[in-house]
Design goal:
Helix 6 (174-184) runs parallel beside helix 13 (321-331), helix 9 (247-257) crosses helix 12 and helix 20 (488-496) packs parallel to helix 22. This protein has helices at residues 13-17, 41-46, 49-60, 101-114, 141-157, 174-184, 213-218, 224-232, 247-257, 273-292, 296-299, 302-315, 321-331, 339-348, 365-370, 373-383, 399-408, 410-423, 434-440, 488-496, 516-519, 525-533, 603-613, 628-639, 651-660; strands spanning 72-77, 82-83, 89-91, 118-123, 162-169, 190-194, 457-459, 475-485, 508-511, 541-544, 556-561, 577-584, 589-597, 600-601. The protein is built from 25 helices and 14 strands.
Length: 661
């Protein structure tokens, strides 16, 4: 609970309704802008009234009327908060990720004006998944993505005179929404500007670990005073996405891998000159694409989507991109990748990046940027023959040409040397060759376990399982009693408890009714972060129909399908059932099965029969706080292909189902 308003705040009726007399002189007409619109007779005869009135509006806002026939470009961003010119907050945003992106907008606008273009700007701010962890706000998180993408698209279409779109975004849902919107603009040149990352504190914990302070304090693993200090300074700088390779950073990586962003733009440190320069050059690129007649459909293709999936695997990225990449492909009118394709790519592509939260050394994302970022990883992938090099990028040239430039560039050499000089870190130990990655013990990114509890599949970020609980053959094996919860708050209470109801080492936490129908497919990082950073947390596994934050680690199996409220067998698990989890991190195979109850072990086949004969748990229900907006989203995305289809609105499929009744 937040503290009450100060008792010293005394506001009377007169303070609210009265104002100073000098304010009561009201002007009733204005002179309007000087000059005249650059109209021609042909314009008056041929243009729509909307296009003509747009010129009037542009002059009314103060732009020089003589410049109103310049090419018009729209800039969209997720900017939030009100920031003074010196950087101090006038009104806070929801998170650092959208706090400074207005500076990128200004830099891009200045370049467009220099190029004799006419820039427009519009904003759709975004929530913070960290801020809403464990709250009802999380039930709006994933549904927000579709809503924001729709609003972005409507804003683009509502400026009919725009000749290109520059999208500036940073974080977990705003950036995927922006990519969906840009991908849908198949007949316009579109460029994505990633909003960068915040720096880690010089003395403290990163923004992922710090989110476990409540659980660690409850278990006596951190003092109140230390928690207050660590919580205060986890964000080393005021702007940018978090310092780890979570969903925000992974989305930036994927945007660049798709070809939508300029080379070496993902993960730039927010607020620094190299970050602002990226916005300037992105505006230049958009104008150049328009002059060359290159459009969105030339950039976002089936081949570029596959490249993005390959780069995602090489980075060890967030499992949330399993939802977002199919959604971007769908928006672009392309075929959505299947689970089988994800499995095939993750079996072929080695993880090459050592970054938070995957380890082993847990470098922050700014070090990944200095080590070479996306193009450096792509150099290794090119050498391994894993990329389509003929795809076009927003640079106006092919990926192969981009990588040739990067390999020989002064920028690459200088930044990698900067990492050595400033942090004493070898860039080849942050972004590794395949041989170096094998020697360092890096394993492939994700596994899709099936079994009698997940017949449609599930997801685990297998590269992030604590290696100390993995057997020598690279297989994680766990069998333990199920602790079943239908509400996240009850699960976190059991984690924080020291009483008999507490979660114990060896338990398997089964959290259900948190999928799309139950809670908007909430992200349960409050739980996974607690288990990651409690001393005994690695001895507990999680199985859920919810999803995870990109910074989650450990034996956490999510996206279980079907979800409990859609009739999935996970909704039949009882307290004391014995659940067995097997994840082979080398072969990327896994299973999650009911294999017993209490002291009796009867195996997976009998477990399948037991589940078939059981009725669903009587306590299955949607969360009572699920908003109607989210219930509508859940129904629409389920009709459009569900979570394995990217949680999208497939209009044709939805319309057909409505027609059939």
């Amino acid at each position: 609970m937040l503290p009450p308003m100060s008792t010293q705040l005394r506001v009377g009726f007169e303070d609210i309704v009265e104002s100073s007399r000098e304010l009561w002189t009201v002007q009733t007409a204005g002179a309007g802008p000087r000059g005249s619109l650059p109209l021609t007779g042909e314009m008056l005869l041929e243009w729509s009234s909307g296009d003509l009135f747009g010129l009037t509006q542009n002059a009314g806002m103060g732009w020089d009327p003589r410049e109103l026939t310049r090419p018009q470009f729209l800039m969209l961003s997720t900017q939030g908060g009100v920031r003074a010119p010196d950087g101090h907050p006038i009104a806070l945003g929801y998170h650092t990720g959208h706090w400074e992106v207005g500076l990128l907008m200004q830099a891009a606008a200045a370049e467009l004006k220099r190029l004799e273009c006419l820039p427009f700007a519009a904003f759709v701010s975004d929530p913070c998944d960290g801020r809403t962890q464990g709250t009802t706000g999380m039930m709006d998180s994933l549904p927000y993505r579709n809503d924001a993408a729709m609003v972005f698209r409507r804003l683009i279409r509502s400026l009919p005179t725009r000749q290109g779109v520059l999208g500036i975004a940073t974080c977990d849902k705003g950036l995927p929404a922006m990519m969906m919107a840009l991908a849908a603009m198949r007949d316009l040149p579109c460029v994505l500007v990633p909003g960068g990352v915040t720096l880690p504190p010089k003395d403290g914990e990163d923004a992922g670990r710090v989110q476990s302070l409540g659980a660690r304090f409850a278990q006596g693993e951190v003092t109140l005073e230390r928690a207050a200090e660590l919580g205060c300074r986890a964000c080393g700088t005021p702007g940018g996405g978090c310092q780890f390779l979570g969903t925000a950073a992974t989305s930036q990586v994927v945007g660049e891998a798709l070809g939508l962003s300029l080379p070496h733009s993902a993960l730039a440190p927010s607020g620094q000159p190299i970050w602002l320069d990226m916005a300037t050059r992105s505006a230049r690129a958009m104008a150049a694409l328009r002059s060359r007649g290159l459009k969105g459909r030339d950039i976002v293709t089936d081949a570029s989507v596959r490249n993005a999936m390959v780069v995602h695997a090489a980075f060890g990225g967030s499992t949330n991109l399993l939802l977002h990449i199919p959604a971007i492909a769908h928006a672009a009118g392309l075929r959505r990748p299947t689970v089988e394709e994800w499995v095939e790519i993750n079996r072929r592509v080695p993880r090459l990046v050592d970054a938070l939260p995957n380890g082993p050394q847990n470098h922050p994302t700014v070090r990944v940027f200095l080590a070479g970022g996306v193009p450096e990883v792509m150099l290794h992938l090119r050498h391994a023959g894993l990329l389509d090099l003929d795809v076009l990028t927003v640079s106006g040239d092919t990926l192969g040409r981009v990588l040739d430039w990067w390999e020989a560039s002064d920028r690459r050499r200088a930044l990698r040397e900067e990492l050595r000089a400033h942090d004493g870190v070898d860039p080849d130990e942050v972004i590794m060759s395949p041989d170096g990655a094998r020697r360092a013990g890096l394993t492939s990114t994700v596994t899709f376990p099936r079994g009698n509890l997940a017949p449609e599949g599930s997801v685990i970020k297998s590269t992030a399982i604590d290696p100390t609980v993995v057997d020598a053959d690279g297989v994680y094996r766990k069998r333990g009693p199920a602790r079943v919860f239908t509400r996240e708050r009850d699960a976190i209470a059991a984690i924080k408890s020291r009483g008999p109801e507490r979660l114990k080492p060896g338990d398997i936490l089964v959290l259900i009714c948190r999928g799309p129908l139950g809670a908007g497919m909430e992200e349960i990082y409050q739980i996974t972060s607690a288990l990651r950073h409690l001393s005994y947390g690695k001895e507990i596994a999680v199985v859920t129909d919810a999803r995870f934050s990109g910074v989650s680690t450990g034996a956490c199996i999510g996206h279980v399908g079907p979800e409990a409220l859609a009739g999935g067998p996970i909704g039949k698990v009882l307290e004391g059932d014995v659940v067995e989890i097997i994840v082979d991190r080398n072969r990327l195979e896994g299973s999650v099965n009911l294999v017993g109850h209490g002291e009796k072990i009867f195996g997976a086949d009998e477990g399948t029969r037991v589940l078939a004969g059981r009725a669903p748990r009587p306590d299955l229900s949607p969360d009572p706080d699920v908003p109607d907006d989210t219930r509508l989203w859940a129904a629409l995305q389920q009709a459009g292909g569900g979570t394995w289809g990217g949680c999208v609105y497939d209009v044709d499929a939805i319309a057909e189902k409505l027609k059939r009744g």
